[in-house]
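Need residues for this backbone.
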């Protein structure tokens, strides 16, 4: 039996939101680590918690090097969110 689907919307209750944040943050960082090992790719994940101002980081190598590599990348970057694919220099 599979898990029940949850509605993806803002969690109003602060305590539930904090618990969900911690669990999903840990899951995301675990998946990032696994992907970097399994596929030999360079990954940097930055998470800013707007509730308490904390910042969390995962990097498969040096974060500064990865961010510099991204900033100087001349190709097309696939984005998920408001736009599917954009050239990243339009964002800088």
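Answer:
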């Amino acid at each position: 039996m599979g898990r029940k689907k949850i509605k993806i919307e803002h969690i109003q209750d602060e305590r539930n939101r904090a618990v969900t944040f911690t669990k999903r943050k840990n899951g995301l960082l675990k998946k990032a680590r696994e992907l970097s090992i399994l596929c030999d790719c360079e990954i940097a994940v930055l998470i800013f918690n707007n509730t308490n101002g904390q910042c969390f980081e995962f990097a498969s190598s040096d974060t500064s090097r990865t961010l510099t590599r991204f900033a100087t990348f001349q190709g097309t970057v696939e984005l998920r969110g408001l736009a599917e694919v954009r050239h990243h220099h339009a964002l800088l």
